[in-house]
Structures are given as structure tokens and as C-alpha cells.
Amino acid sequence: MEQAVIELNGLTKRYGEFTAVSGLNLSIRAGEIFGLLGPNGAGKTTTILMMLGLTEPSAGTATVCGIDATRNPMQVKRRVGYMPDDVGFYEDRTGLDNLVYTARLNRIPAKEARVRAEQMLEKVGLSEAAHKKTGAYSRGMRQRLGLADVLIKQPEVIILDEPTLGIDPEGVRELLTLIRDLSRNEGLTVLLSSHHLHQVQQICDRVGLFVGGKLIASGDLDALSRELDGGPTRLVEADIRGWTPELTDAIAAIEHVSGVTSGDADALDNAAAGDAGSVTVRVAGTADFTPQLASVIVGSGAELLGLRPMRYGLDEIYHRYFEGGDSRDRVH
Ligand SMILES: Nc1ncnc2c1ncn2[C@@H]1O[C@H](COP(=O)(O)OP(=O)(O)OP(=O)(O)O)[C@@H](O)[C@H]1O
């Protein structure tokens, strides 16, 4: 069993009558990139603030690197780098000066502070902008400097609140790649809050779906997919020439198959009318049914042109959990 670096037990935060975070249990392992995903107001920031000891829980505990964050916030602060969604810098000072200043605040001796600051700038790809005032940095550059700023004290854990907010797509890609490489190369544990599904999907080992102050599901993409209550866990697309409505019935009767759909009603109508074109059907089920599917299609006398396993994306999972079933049939 790998060691848990972040351990939340029954973590709860109430503001008067309102419960912002409710009975949160979560364990994040060393070296893991965990995405806290949820819509605005879900309680992500409140949870992060409790992990850092910056706000006191109403109930439960937040333990980070084995330290109780509420009782020993200063000790946690030494080992955890926190990047808020809007990092503040001294605008009239250079990127390098800002980093040296942070290093000095963290009691790093002057000479070493300068060396480390330069190393960090190199790491986040800002060496060329080292002597530029941060007031002239772009949003993407500021976020990269923010990352350098949390890394300079060599934390074991970094917590990033909406790190990609307001950055253009290329900047997002670069920043996410940087975060992933840092975690992989240096064994950093990363907790990342976001409501951008695709971004989280790109780099996180596991994701927690957070809504209304509750963690309603967590796991890797496959685990979340399996957790979809009553939902299919396997999805296969088949391209068929010579489809008939009877074939759909036969497919639906295969063991473990829970649904057969096609996005193209016209193609189905044409095929039913004897057209030689192909149709694509999407078959969902609760366990592997692919060999039987192939055999039923071929056995019906139709031609099987292609068979592709599909995967539920985080987008679909998110929509199913948060926004109801209207996107249930969408696949990547
Ligand atoms: N100091 C406070 N007093 C009262 N309510 C608060 C306070 N701080 C946060 N809340 C409420 O708690 C809920 C959770 O807020 P939080 O900022 O943690 O959400 P979030 O998931 O981080 O959202 P966002 O993505 O918008 O940052 C919100 O409804 C918010 O209004």
C-alpha cells in the first residue's frame, strides 16, 4: 500500500446554515496527479483552504504529509506549494527578483536563492523573460512563474487552483505538460482543481467529481465509467453493410448488451429499404460482448466492415453525473 500524502476524513465546512463541504473522504498517494473536478461553487477552493490550514473545518480532519493541517498549518505550508487561481507578484520587479524574494521568505540563503530562482525559471521555460518586469508578463507566463514560485521551496505536494484559467489553448497545453513532467520526473504529488474536463483528463491519474460540497465519485476514468449507476461500461461501434431492423433486435438480445443506437436515422431507413450503403451502430453493454456481436452480425448475412471499441470520456461521465442524461449517447 503506497503512502497517502493527502488524507481527508469526514472533512466538513459549514458557513452558518450552509454546508460548503460535506463529509469529504479522500486519500491521495505520493506522486499522484489528482484532479478535483466540479462546477463553480462545488466547494473545491474551500477544501483546498482546509488542506492548507487556511480555514478551519467544522468537522473532520485534513492530514497533509502526515501533518494535521488545522493544528499545524505552518508545518504544512513548508511542505506544500499552493498556487491560487490568481497569483500575485510585484509587478514592477522582474520574474527573477520575485522568485528570489519568495525564496528568501522561505529562509533560503541569498546566494542559493538566486541559483534556485534561475533553475526554476529554466524549468518553467522563462529564462529569457527572467529580467522582464512581471507587470509585462502574459497570463500564461504569470502562471508559469506561479509554478516556479511554488516549486522554489522544493515542496512535496503542489496544490493548484484552476491553474489554466484565462490561458490560451497552446499555453494550457504547455502548462499541463509541464505539470505532468514535474510530477513524473520529481515524484511530486499534485492536486489540481478545475472545471475543465478535457484538461483534467489529459494529465490526471485520478479524478474526484465534486458537486454541492460532496465528492460523488472518484477514480480513474475506467473506474468512474464503471461507477455510472446502471450505465453501460462497454461501448463498441460497428460498421455494417446489409443492416436490417431484425439485426438490431438480434444484437439487443446478446448477453450483456444494454442498448443499440445509431446516430444516423437516414442511413438506417435507407438500409432497411435495401440501400447498399453502410450504417454505423453503437452497442453498449455491461461486460465484453464483442465476439458475440461480430458473430451475430456475420451470421445474419450482413457484412461487418468495422468494429471499434469506444471509451466513455470524462465529458460524458461529467454530464451524466452533473447534468442529467441528455448526453448519454454521446461518445468520443
Ligand atoms: N466565507 C464564506 N462565507 C460563506 N459562504 C462561502 C464562503 N466561502 C465560500 N462560500 C460558499 O461555499 C460554496 C463553495 O465555494 P468554493 O469557493 O469552495 O467553490 P469552488 O468549487 O471553489 O467554486 P469555483 O470553481 O467557483 O471557485 C459556495 O457556495 C460559496 O458561496
TrEMBL record:
* Keyword line: ATP-binding, Nucleotide-binding, Transport
Molecular function terms in GO for this entry?
ATP binding; ATP hydrolysis activity
What is the name attached to this protein's record?
ABC transporter ATP-binding protein
Answer yes or no on keyword Nucleotide-binding. yes
**Residues annotated as transmembrane:** none
Where does the ABC transporter domain start and stop, copy by copy?
Answer: 6-237
Which family is this protein grouped under?
Belongs to the ABC transporter superfamily.
Kindly name one Pfam family recorded for this protein: ABC_tran
